[in-house]
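Propose amino acids for all 219 sites.
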């Protein structure tokens, strides 16, 4: 493969890589339904291209005032045919990548914040991720999960899987975690960092954002 082709591939991958950062920020803080690989790739490519273009414009604009950086005049209006200094190109490229990553994180964070403020959301597929993943004042819900055998498990929502097969879904709670048996059994603290509850044995889920002081510290 010619060196020019390899360089072009590396450049394209670097330009689109911020899209992966954008996607990971959303996936980390916003539970979403499963989507096709094509949709995921299009979203990442679009986010990467947009953030890279914006970052390039910003860095070229800064090059007009900061000599070590490449300016727009050097790229577009250089009639002498002399290329910018190699280290200027390297510094500008690294700054473009850094700025584009920052823009990708900011865009993902803004999207997560916007989705968290929406009072209702219509989602394709399971409603578990949309309802349980929503936050109020930046805090997750405190859930009381009723199981088929009558037990009750309480804890702060951590995550929920959204699989095509409901038998593979699971709800995860984090401390403080409390458990009680059927009937009027007393609640006992569960000294674990998290607990997985298969969706197949869940009868009902109750949630509240009115957390206690102890729970606030854990959130």
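Proposal:
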């Amino acid at each position: 493969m010619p060196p020019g082709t390899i360089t072009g591939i590396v450049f394209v991958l670097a330009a689109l890589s911020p899209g992966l950062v954008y996607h990971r920020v959303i996936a980390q803080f916003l539970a979403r339904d499963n989507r096709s690989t094509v949709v995921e790739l299009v979203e990442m490519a679009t986010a990467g291209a947009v953030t890279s273009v914006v970052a390039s414009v910003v860095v070229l604009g800064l090059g007009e005032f900061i000599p070590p950086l490449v300016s727009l005049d050097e790229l577009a209006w250089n009639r002498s045919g002399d290329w910018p200094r190699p280290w200027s190109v390297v510094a500008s490229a690294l700054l473009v990548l850094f700025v584009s990553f920052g823009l990708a994180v900011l865009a993902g964070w803004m999207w997560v914040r916007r989705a968290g403020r929406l009072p209702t959301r219509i989602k394709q597929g399971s409603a578990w991720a949309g309802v349980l993943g929503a936050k109020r004042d930046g805090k997750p819900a405190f859930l009381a999960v009723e199981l088929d055998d009558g037990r009750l498990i309480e804890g702060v929502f951590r995550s929920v899987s959204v699989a095509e097969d409901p038998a593979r879904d699971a709800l995860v709670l984090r401390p403080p975690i409390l458990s009680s048996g059927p009937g009027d059994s007393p609640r006992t603290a569960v000294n674990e960092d998290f607990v997985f509850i298969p969706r197949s044995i869940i009868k009902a889920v109750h949630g509240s954002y009115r957390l206690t002081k102890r729970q606030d510290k854990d959130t």
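The two ends are 52 Å apart (CA to CA). Residues 86-117 form the longest helix (32 residues).
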